[in-house]
Specification:
It is a single chain. By secondary structure, this protein is mainly alpha-helical. It has 17 helices and 10 strands. The strands form 4 sheets. Strands 3-5-6 form a 3-stranded mixed sheet. Helix 4 runs antiparallel to helix 5 and helix 4 crosses helix 13. The protein starts with a strand and ends with a helix.
C-alpha cells in the first residue's frame, strides 16, 4: 500500500492517495493497519508535540502500530504499539471513549512488556496474511501524555477539557469507512471484469438450432445476472469519489474550526459503508457463480476478492449497527424539521414531506407520474421512497415511546423500520450522485452509455424493492410491469458495450490475478498451464498412492 508524506507549516499530512487501490494483486499485509489507521490517527488526533514523539518513529517503522478498539481483532504479533480506544476516567467520572498510545512490546527485543498479554487469534475465513490478535492489560500504566489530546485533554491536575464534538474521537473510523466505499467500487469492478470477460470467451449450448454455440454473455439470464452488477460498480465508483472528496473537504473545515458538516459525514460514511459492502459482497459471489465451476477455482481470482472484501461487512462497524447509526441522524433530522427548522444536505428531502411543509415556497412538488426513462424523475422516486420510509420509522418510534416504553426499548422495537429507512436513504444518495454525474460527461456517446447504466441501476433497484414503491403509491402496478420490461430492453442495449465497459476500469492482469479475466482472452490455454503448477502434479505418481491407496487395494 503506497503512502506519501507531506510536511506543512504546522503539521504532517498523508496525501489523499495515502491509502488507495492496490497497484498489484495481493492480499492484505500486516502493515496495512499501521499505514491505514495508526498513522492517520496520529495525524488527525495527536498534538504537534505528540506527533514529534510518535509519528516520525512510526513513519520510519521504529514504532509499528495497530488500532485496538476491541480486545480481539487488531494486529497481534507485528505491532509494538497500539492506539487503544478505552473509557477515560478522571476525578472519579467517566468521559467515554478516548484514544491512547500504548506501548505493548519492548523495542529491540519485541517481547511483550510487563502487564501485557498479546498474541494471534488463529485462522480466519480469509486475511491469512494478517496476524489479527488479542490484547490484555493487567494493571498497566502509561503516561498522561500518551492520551491523544488534539481535541479532548486531561490537565496535569486531572481536569478534563472536553472536545468541541465527541465525534472527533471517531475520525479514523470515519476516514476508513469513507475509503471502504471506494474499495467496494474497486472490488466489484474487478469481479465484474472477470465475470464479463469470461462470459465473452465461454461458448455453451445453443440459442438457435444448427447454429454455433454462442458466447454465454448472449444469454439473457447471464446478462440479467451481470449487467445490473456492472451498473452498480459504476454507481459505487461515483459514490466513492464523492465520499473521498467530501471527507477531505470536511476534514479541512474541521481544521479551521467548522464542525457543521461532521454529523452528516459520520452518518453518511456509516450508512454508505454498510450499503455498498453488503451489495458488493453479494455481487462478488454472484459473479463467481456466473462463471460456473471455474469460478470456484482460485485461478479465477474471485475467491480471493471475496474473502478479502467480505470482512468489510463486519469490520469498522458491523453493518446493521452502521445502518442504525445513520438512522439516529435521520431521526434527529426528522425531529428538526418537525420543530420548524429546515434540514439541509442529503436529508433536505424531509422538508418536502406533506406533514412537514412549514415553508411552502421552498417545497418542491412531488411528481405525480414517474417517467421511467428520466434520470431526474427516477431520482425523485427514490427520494420520495426514502422520505416516506424515514417518516414511517419516525412515527413508529414515537408510537412505541408513547406506550410508556423507554427510548432505548422503543428504539429496539423499531430497529427493523429504522434499518429500512437508512437503506432507502443510502439508496437514494447513490442514485442521486450517479444521476448528477451524467450531465458532466462531455462526450455524448459516453454519456449515452452511462445513461443506460444509470437507468439499469435505478430500474433494477425498483424491481428489487417494488413493494416499497407500490405501497407508498410512488409507482403503479402498470409501471412496475414496465420496469421489468424496460430492464430486459436495457440488457440488449448494453450487451455490445459490456466488454468495453469493464475494460474501461483499466485493471492490468497482474492486478486482477485471474486466469478467467485475462485481457487477451486466452483463458483455456492458461487455465491448463495454471492447473499443471499444482503441487500435486510434481510427481506422476503421488506418494499417497504408495503410502495409503496401494496397501488398501492389496487388502481387498
Amino acid at each position: 500500500m503506497a503512502a506519501f508524506l507531506q510536511r506543512t507549516r504546522d503539521n504532517w499530512h498523508l496525501l489523499p492517495d495515502g491509502i488507495g487501490p492496490r497497484s498489484v494483486h495481493r492480499g492484505p499485509l500486516p502493515l496495512d493497519l499501521h499505514l491505514g489507521m495508526f498513522l492517520p490517527t496520529l495525524l488527525h488526533q495527536a498534538t504537534v508535540e505528540q506527533q514529534e514523539r510518535f509519528f516520525m518513529p512510526a513513519w520510519n517503522l521504529e514504532i509499528i502500530g495497530t488500532y485496538a478498539q476491541t480486545e480481539m481483532g487488531h494486529v497481534g504479533k507485528t505491532s509494538n504499539h497500539a492506539i487503544v480506544l478505552a473509557q477515560l476516567y478522571t476525578k472519579g467520572k467517566c468521559y467515554g471513549l478516548h484514544a491512547f498510545v500504548v506501548p505493548i512490546r519492548e523495542i529491540g527485543t519485541h517481547k511483550p512488556l510487563p502487564g501485557i498479554t498479546v498474541g494471534d487469534i488463529g485462522p480466519k475465513f480469509g486475511y491469512d496474511e494478517i496476524d489479527n490478535g488479542y490484547l490484555k492489560m493487567d494493571h498497566y500504566r502509561i503516561p498522561r501524555e500518551n492520551m491523544l489530546m488534539k481535541y479532548a485533554q486531561v490537565k496535569p491536575d486531572g481536569t478534563y477539557v472536553k472536545p468541541v464534538s465527541n465525534k472527533l474521537t471517531y475520525g479514523t473510523m470515519v476516514f476508513v469507512r469513507s475509503f471502504l466505499v471506494g474499495e467496494a467500487a474497486r472490488c466489484l469492478a474487478k469481479a465484474c471484469t472477470i465475470a464479463i470477460r469470461y462470459s465473452a470467451v465461454r461458448h455453451q449450448s445453443e440459442i438457435n438450432p444448427n447454429e454455433p454455440e454462442p458466447q454465454i454473455l448472449d444469454f439473457q439470464t447471464q446478462q440479467f445476472k451481470l449487467f445490473p452488477l456492472l451498473a452498480t460498480a459504476y454507481a459505487f465508483h461515483f459514490v466513492g469519489a464523492y465520499m473521498k472528496e467530501t471527507y477531505h473537504r470536511i476534514n479541512k473545515d474541521i481544521g479551521q474550526g467548522d464542525l457543521s458538516g461532521l454529523p452528516e459525514l459520520h452518518a453518511l460514511t456509516a450508512g454508505l459503508k454498510a450499503f455498498t459492502s453488503w451489495s458488493t459482497s453479494a455481487a462478488i459471489e454472484a459473479c463467481r457463480m456466473a462463471c460456473g465451476g471455474h469460478g470456484y477455482s482460485h485461478c479465477s481470482g474471485l475467491p480471493n476478492i471475496y474473502v478479502t472484501f467480505t470482512p468489510t461487512c463486519t469490520f469498522e462497524g458491523e453493518n446493521t449497527v452502521m445502518m442504525l447509526q445513520t438512522a439516529r441522524f435521520l431521526m434527529k433530522s426528522y425531529d428538526q424539521v418537525r420543530s420548524g427548522k429546515l434540514a439541509c444536505g442529503t436529508v433536505s428531502y424531509l422538508n418536502d414531506l406533506p406533514s412537514q411543509r412549514i415553508q411552502p415556497q421552498q417545497v418542491a412538488v412531488w411528481p405525480t407520474v414517474v417517467d421511467l426513462g428520466s434520470p431526474n424523475s427516477l431520482t425523485e422516486a427514490y427520494k420520495l421512497r426514502a422520505a416516506r420510509l424515514v417518516e414511517i420509522a419516525a412515527k413508529n418510534l414515537q408510537t412505541e415511546v408513547s406506550h410508556r416504553k423507554s427510548k432505548e426499548v422503543a428504539w429496539n422495537l423499531t430497529s427493523v423500520d429504522l434499518t429500512r429507512a437508512s437503506e432507502a436513504h443510502c439508496h437514494y444518495v447513490v442514485v442521486k450522485l450517479f444521476s448528477e454525474q451524467l450531465p458532466k460527461i462531455q462526450d455524448k456517446s459516453i454519456q449515452a452509455v452511462l445513461r443506460n447504466l444509470f437507468l439499469l441501476y435505478s430500474l433494477y433497484g425498483i424491481s428489487q424493492k417494488a413493494g416499497d414503491f407500490l405501497q407508498e403509491s410512488i409507482l403503479t402496478h402498470s409501471q412496475v410491469t414496465q420496469v421489468h420490461q424496460r430492464i430486459k430492453e436495457l440488457l440488449t442495449v448494453i450487451r455490445p458495450e459490456a466488454v468495453a465497459l469493464v475494460d474501461a476500469f483499466d485493471f492490468q492482469d497482474v492486478s486482477l490475478g485471474s486466469v478467467l479475466g485475462r485481457y487477451d482472452g486466452n483463458v483455456y490455454e492458461n487455465l491448463f498451464e495454471w492447473a499443471k503448477t499444482s503441487p500435486l502434479n510434481r510427481a506422476e505418481v503421488h506418494e499417497s498412492y504408495h503410502k495409503y491407496l496401494k496397501p488398501l487395494q492389496s487388502k481387498l
